[in-house]
User: What shape does this take?
Amino acid sequence: MIRRPAGSDWLLISQVEHARIAGEVADHWPDPMGDASLAAPLRHAIRNHDNGWSTWEQAPRIDPDTGWARNFTEMPTVDACAIWSHSIADCANHSPWGGLWVSRHFCWLGERGRQHVTDAPSRQAFESFLDTQQTLQARWLAQLALERGESHARNSGEIGFRLVQFFDRLSLWLCCEPETSPKPLEFPDGRIFEFAPRSPTEIGVRPWAFNVSILELSVPVARLPMQPYADDAALQAALAHAPRETLRWTLAGA
Assistant: This one.
């Protein structure tokens, strides 16, 4: 779950919805892989890379240190690894490409997380997750190498992983904070795309790469007072009665 500040309130955004936004952006980016045969598995992986959050988000929990609804960056390591594993499995069920790309995405996060934990249980959880995913990645790569050749499998595995990261980062930039400063993002081919806010809802994009003249995006949010909650049940009760709103953005050529 994304916890976005909004004055004296929080706007809570589902991780599943954030991934849907990433997928909608990718849907309008013509052939990002440079391989039309991989367009469908890539778009599925981007749109569904956070599906493992769906169960947790039905009954979100607080951070006991603050009483706030947990932001996605504040999850206990064991919970985060379990959510990532479910997301990867869901994408792998659709395609080994999706499993490979999304596994690499979360291993990238896991390797960085491991560098910052000091307690043994968290380190063990990261190491177990990474070991399991390395085994799965080798299996998917071997299968794809038989089908498409080893060089193609490795190159497409790298490019697809970096595309999942590109569209994920763009969606997170939109969802996590009110946009006030330009955001440069590097595409896998080395091009830099700049996303520059013109207003709270209008984003100029340079260079323009989409297959539409403007791109309209929206995500549902729940508004909660920015306050601590006594326990998980109190948070869940407040969320059940929270007002629902919609965040909207318009992307256009700069």
The longest helix spans residues 120-148. Residues 67 and 228 are 4 Å apart (CA to CA). Residues 2-179+222-247 form one domain.
